[in-house]
Write a structure and sequence with these properties.
- With 79 residues, the chain is mostly beta strands.
- The protein has one domain.
- Helix content is 11%, strand content 53%.
- Strands 1, 2, 3, 4, 5 and 6 form a six-stranded antiparallel sheet that branches.
- The longest helix is centred in the C-terminal third of the chain and has 9 residues.
């Protein structure tokens, strides 16, 4: 399994969808960013502000990340 080190901060946890198919999200604010190793296979998408990661419990988390988009793209393509 391949990993990438990312500096992650605030995030939104998607707990599923309501009867109108709207995401049920929980917004989590933290005091800063922290480094985490993330399995590349769990990364679903990367935007300018968020990286979407799935978890074994079926939840999806939109993380804010500190690196710039190009740095993340290069780290992922070098793996």
């Amino acid at each position: 399994m391949k990993f990438v080190e990312l500096t992650l901060g605030n995030h939104m946890v998607c707990h599923g969808f309501d009867e109108s198919n709207n995401e049920i999200t929980e917004h989590v604010k933290v005091d800063g960013f922290s480094k985490k190793l993330v399995a590349i296979s769990r990364i679903k998408s990367v935007s300018e502000k968020y990286i979407l990661i799935d978890y074994l419990n079926g939840r999806w988390v939109y993380w804010e990340y500190e690196e710039d988009n190009e740095t993340v793209k290069m780290a992922l393509t070098q793996q």
